[in-house]
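For reproducibility, we list the full input for the carboxymethyl coenzyme *A complex.
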Amino acid sequence: MTDKATLTIGDKSYDLPILKGSTGPDVVDVRKFYGDSDHFTFDPAFTSTASCESKITYIDGDAGILLHRGYPIGQLAEESSFLEVCHLLLNGELPTADEFAKFEHNITYHTMLHAQFDSFFQGFRRDAHPMAVMTGAVGALSAFYADSLNVDDPKQREISAHRLIAKMPTIAARAFQYSQGRPFVTPRNELSYSENFLRMCFSVPAEDWVPNPILTRAMDRIFILHADHEQNASTSTVRLAGSSGAHPFACIAAGIACLWGPSHGGANQEALEMLEEIGTVENIPAYVQGVKDRKYKLMGFGHRVYKNFDPRAKVMQKTCYEVLEQLGINDPLLHVAMELEKVALSDPYFIDRKLYPNIDFYSGITLRAMGFPKEMFTVLFALARTVGWISQWKEMFEDPSRKIGRPRQLYTGATQRDYVPVDKRG
Ligand code: CMC
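The corresponding predicted structure, in tokenized form, follows.
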């Protein structure tokens, strides 16, 4: 086994160190390659590039494995709680009982928003997409919590991380209530993270939300499933934004903006819209033919990393069945989804390309059954992913070798030429 790769260009050879992780593919270290060879490496969508070193999340896409700090996602979803997973991602270890009590207290006592923050929402149109509200509102947090913006102070970094995890449900619930034309609901300290969020979303002045352990557990599990996912587009956005020294509220707002895209977190809304468009099982063959004719993609299917079942999708599918069964809901779209999955998984187009359902395929039906409109789906993803983003941001900041991220390019534009006055052009 060699610990270096050799790359030859013309009559010159360059030795490139090979670095080993604790598991997963080795990487070829090209950091000095440009300086030594005057060549860049070219990998526009990062299909072969490790952009950072990390100890947080590991994915084996061929085997369908997802580990957070070494723990399989299935075990965390079954046995842990979202706040415990937050502690795990942020601090590296599952908390002891004392550590958890302290962490939970810290998060709980940061859930309130500055009273003036509420008026910020009024600036949005009532029909604004809640993701538009989220992007603006989270960025605006920096204007209210200026006392934790010094990124060089570890204590301030920690306070900002706790504030983001704690205030995200409050902001998300306000974005929802605002879109419904209902007054905001203040968080209650005696409730759990997920219970508090559901109450803030569904309580109205005329009627309090009635706690429902099935829904609370499902919400918590859905948050766990979305908590982190290695160096995906939004996380890479957060890291790149943070590499300039930007404060976390700005970085997480950038992450939310990136997440909104339909290839990423926006796929959960689009997957449900697709199922609505298909409507009935009879329409599936024609729809699948349209996918194969490349008119559109099958939303909630496929993944850059997973070339096998997305392990999150398996848990999400189970949660979906449980929620619908326990709530006594017979959603015809579940039948469409199940049949669509069956058809796709037995079609050579999807088999050859290793396209499997991802987390977004069943999340929409579940969230709809829980009472959320589809515009809220990506908001819930953002809420849960905040801990992943801030953990990755923190890890980057704690790395003494941190440098500003600055990719280069393969330039194919005009070479140098002289300016031509307007009367001499054409
Ligand atoms: N429907 C139909 N064909 C697909 C799909 C799909 N959902 N996904 C990939 N393909 C095809 C693609 O056209 C290509 O075919 P060919 O080689 O013949 O040109 C092949 O499969 C490989 O796809 P790719 O575009 O190279 O894959 P990618 O890694 O660049 O894209 C993806 C990954 C997730 C953006 C893509 O699978 C997709 O657009 N899926 C639908 C959107 C979706 O569900 N996104 C949520 C991802 S999971 C949540 C998250 O973490 O954000």
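Strands lie at 4-9, 12-19, 27-28, 57-60, 65-68, 71-72. The mean pLDDT is 96. Both points were considered when choosing residues for closer inspection.
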